Amino acid sequence: MITSKQAEEQLQSLKASKEAAQLIWNSFEEGGITIHTPFELNGTSHAFTTLIQLDADVINYFPDVGGEDLTKYTRKMGNIAQRHWYEVEFAFYKLGSSRKLWYLLSDVILWVSNAITLLYVVDFNNILVSLGWFSIPFITAFFRKKVLKFLSPKLLRLSFDIKKIGEWLFKKLQKEELKKSDV
């Protein structure tokens, strides 16, 4: 029987997975996760900004405060930088908490692809060959975690590389069309 504590833990896990899924979806749409920490110095707006891309690029943008007297704002700048760093760490934590979501997605893809393959490949007249084919989903499920650790980062990087190549080709086509229209 499930206790209320176990139910609460499962509920929190589902909430974290939902937030992680939303975070990942938004990062695919926007090209990454942006953490923006605005602040004011002497009436002028500034901000620390960090962009975390899912292909492991982390880009930090530091505010240009060259015109300010930083000796007056040392403590304030330290507090703002520390708050920004906590927000960046929290974003990494939310990405890491999506492990159960990634496992669920990989399981669904694994089982569906195996089921479709088996429907086309299995020869029901030959029982021995059919048993061999039916063992494949169980073997792949058994080694799923090892495959995930090896394959997931590579697939993620490949998807972003494809996106970057697509953007590059799109820009190249736009430039060619612009040259044609100028002629």
Description:
This protein is α+β, with helices and mostly antiparallel strands. The chain has 2 domains: 4-96, no CATH class; 99-182, no CATH class. 70% of the residues lie in helices and 12% in strands. It is built from 5 helices and 3 strands. It has helices spanning 4-30, 74-96, 99-121, 127-142, 144-182; strands at 33-41, 44-52, 58-61. It has a 3-stranded antiparallel sheet. A hairpin with a 2-residue loop joins strand 1 and strand 2. Helix 3 runs antiparallel to helix 4. It is flat and about 85 Å long. The model has no long low-confidence stretch (mean pLDDT 76).
What level of helicity do the residues show? 55-70%
- How would you write the strand order of the largest sheet? 1-2-3
Structural class: alpha+beta
The number of distinct helices, counting runs of at least 4 residues, comes to 5
Into which percentage range does the β-strand content fall? 5-15%
Rg over CA atoms? 25 Å
Transmembrane segments: 101-121, 127-144
Keywords: Membrane, Transmembrane, Transmembrane helix
